Amino acid sequence: MKRLRLFLALLWATTSASGWAGPAWKAELATPATSSISGLILSEPGSVEIDAQWHDGKPRFVAHLRGTYQRPGWSLVYNESENLAASPEEGPRPFDFTIPIRSESQSVLLLAIGQTRMESLSLEIRFREWPGLESRLSRELALKPIVSLGASSIRYEEPGYADFSVVAALAKLAARYPIPAAAWELHLSASLAASLKEVNDAGRPLFLAAELSLDARVLESDRWRVLLRGGFRYANMIVRADAFGYDRLLHPQVFPVVRGTLANGDMLEAYAKWAPLGKAAALLNAEEREIAFGMSWGRVLRSGTPVTVSLDFSSQRFQTTADHVLSSTSWAFAVGAGLF
Known about the structure:
Elements: H1 2-19, E1 25-30, E2 40-42, E3 47-55, E4 58-69, E5 75-79, E6 82-85, E7 93-100, E8 105-113, E9 118-126, H2 133-142, E10 146-158, E11 162-179, E12 184-195, E13 206-220, E14 224-238, E15 249-261, E16 267-276, E17 289-300, E18 306-321, E19 324-338
Antiparallel strand pairs: 1-3, 1-9, 2-4, 3-4, 4-7, 5-6, 5-8, 8-9, 10-11, 10-19, 11-12, 12-13, 13-14, 14-15, 15-16, 16-17, 17-18, 18-19
């Protein structure tokens, strides 16, 4: 648990220090000499900060135009949703206009509106890094492996051999590789859960699992996708002297995954799974199966680092012989961050 607390502290420090604050780029801000607005002072004349706001794994670039405006009876307007009304009772009022960037060179028009007159200021944002930046950042994000640490509560039953409940330290690794031409995605994950206490004379059990699968898009809207994930899952349990447990369990699986993007760019993912265990002749045998479901929340920080929080449930039941039934049930909670 000390290692888990240390990981969470490091994750918080990383996101607080570099993820949430600070612009990623600077762009040139050109102001013509022929137009001006009285009472307007830009915070950084000649430059503007650029941030990436992530939506569905793709960056959307925005410029932050900041400054102050002081002119009683007038309003400073960028668009219908962002305007600043100056009041006679107040001093200079700060503003922070968020401007979507859609090209390397983009014009911005500020208006100052009084009761009978109007003034304008035309600005040009020159974002030299724009060409190819969106595709490069999207590709880098997609290829970043996610390392997660957490805890798992495991209940294991094997009549005549073992019957115990343990809390385990959990480590997970997940990676994906998009295949744009086919609208598919290769998915790889692995996990290791290590019991925090000894069980009988078998030491501290280790629970290993790995999955290799291919995701195919079935349905898609602006913010939501339904994927069909198909592949194979491998599971192994390690105890001292092989006193009990399962060994090299490999089975196919096909199940749906729902992935969505919220209005603020945060990502949600949920899945539900029923997979057969055991021999091919027993594919429809309800006694040998894995039932699982889970959900995760993710956010891409301004630095391009993804962070995730996940909760998973799994229930497995299978036979090694006609009268030897094994079962395990687990809940797992983990917090992760992208590498590199």
